[in-house]
C-alpha cells in the first residue's frame, strides 16, 4: 500500500468556479473570421448541409420554406466569436436572417421570444 499524504482533495470545489458570464465583446481577429467564413462555404457544399436544409423549415420562426430559399446562419455570429461548426449552423429564412442582421442582440432575443408565443 502506498502511504497516504493526508492532503484533502479540496480542489474539487475549486473547479466549480468557472461559472463566468459570457463576454460578448471579445474583439475577434479578422483573419479568424475569414477562416471561419471559408469553412462555412465548404459546409454549404456538403451533403450535411443539403440534409439539414431538406427539413424545409426555418430554424427560428419554424415556418415552412423551400430548401432553396433557406440560408445558412450562425447561431453565434462569427463577429461575436462563433465558429463554423455544424452545431453552430442552422437553416434560416431570409426574413429572420435580415432581422438578425439589423436588430441588436437584445432585440433579436425579443424577436425570438415573440415567435415562441
Ligand atoms: Zn424564419
Tell me the span between the first and last alpha carbons: 63 Å
- Give the tally of structural domains: 1
Strands ordered across the widest β-sheet: 1-2
Residue windows where pLDDT falls under 50 for at least 5 positions: 11-17
Distinct ligands, ions and cofactors found in the model = zinc ion
CATH class: Mainly Alpha
Structure description:
This protein is mostly helical and 117 residues long. It has a single domain, classed as DNA Binding (I), subunit A, CATH 1.10.30.50. The chain is built from five helices and two strands, in the order H-H-H-E-E-H-H. It has a two-stranded antiparallel ribbon. The longest helix has 15 residues. The radius of gyration is 20 Å and the shape is flat. About 6% of the residues have low confidence. Bound molecules: zinc ion.
Based on the model shown, name its key terms.
flat, two-stranded antiparallel sheet, DNA Binding (I), subunit A, 5 helices, binds zinc ion, 2 strands, 117 residues, single chain, mainly alpha
Amino acid at each position: 500500500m502506498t502511504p497516504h499524504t493526508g492532503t484533502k482533495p479540496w480542489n474539487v470545489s475549486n473547479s466549480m468556479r468557472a461559472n463566468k458570464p459570457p463576454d460578448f465583446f471579445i474583439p475577434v481577429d479578422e483573419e479568424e473570421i475569414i477562416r471561419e467564413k471559408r469553412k462555412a462555404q465548404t459546409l454549404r457544399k456538403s451533403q450535411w448541409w443539403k440534409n439539414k436544409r431538406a427539413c424545409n423549415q426555418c430554424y427560428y420562426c419554424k415556418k415552412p420554406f423551400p430548401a432553396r430559399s433557406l440560408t445558412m446562419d450562425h447561431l453565434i455570429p462569427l463577429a461575436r466569436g462563433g465558429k463554423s461548426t455544424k452545431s453552430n449552423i442552422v437553416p434560416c429564412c431570409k426574413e429572420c436572417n435580415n432581422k438578425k442582421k439589423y436588430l441588436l442582440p437584445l432585440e433579436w432575443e425579443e424577436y425570438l421570444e415573440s415567435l415562441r408565443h
